[in-house]
């Protein structure tokens, strides 16, 4: 099986979104360079600096599946049935959104109602040897608490938000120790960092 990696853009003070899930200036780096990177969503194109473009290409090429929470799924409306990185998506939810499923019959989405462990298992089945990406927030916190994350990837943005939705939130376990970064890439308006989770 491939790695399980949580990844997100994060402000200097640890937030991944505002309280209403708006991202503010956290994604400015997606449009701060000269390298054009197309996505699977019509009309969504990134303009990245060369180091960031290389990092994003490596990340997306490694992905076999994404595991996300229901909040992110609802906020994005499931990205219209196709994630920008063009990978299968596993949604952790209490209730399957049957109306959405009926109106997006070809979407490569799985809805798991029996918890984050089952969702991660489904993601690994889909990804096989590929990386399972885990969205930041509640799902990432639960995976971290259960010792299921191999790495934490942070796109660190030079923005101070003051408040909002933290990357992990309040942990229900003692502090989790991360190793020294195995990746540290300076882009334009962002620093890409990848930390192994010590076990």
Kindly describe this structure:
By secondary structure, the chain is an alpha/beta fold. The chain contains five helices and twelve strands. The strands form three sheets. It has an eight-stranded mixed β-sheet with strand order 7-6-5-8-1-9-12-11, with helices on both faces. A hairpin with a 6-residue loop joins β3 and β4 (45-48). The model has no long low-confidence stretch (mean pLDDT 96).
Summary, kept brief:
The chain is an alpha/beta fold. Helices cover 23% and strands 29% of the residues. Strands 7-6-5-8-1-9-12-11 form an eight-stranded mixed beta sheet, with helices on both faces. It has a two-stranded antiparallel sheet with strand order 2-10.
Structural class call reads alpha/beta
How many whole angstroms does the radius of gyration measure? 16 Å
Oligomer: single chain
Continuous helix count: 5
Number of DSSP E strands:
12
Question: What is the strand content?
Answer: 25-35%
Going across the biggest sheet, name each strand in turn: 7-6-5-8-1-9-12-11
The major pleated sheet works out as:
8 strands, mixed
Determine the N-to-C terminus distance.
18 Å
Mean pLDDT over all positions? 96
Spell the H/E element sequence: EEEEHEHEHEHEHEEEE
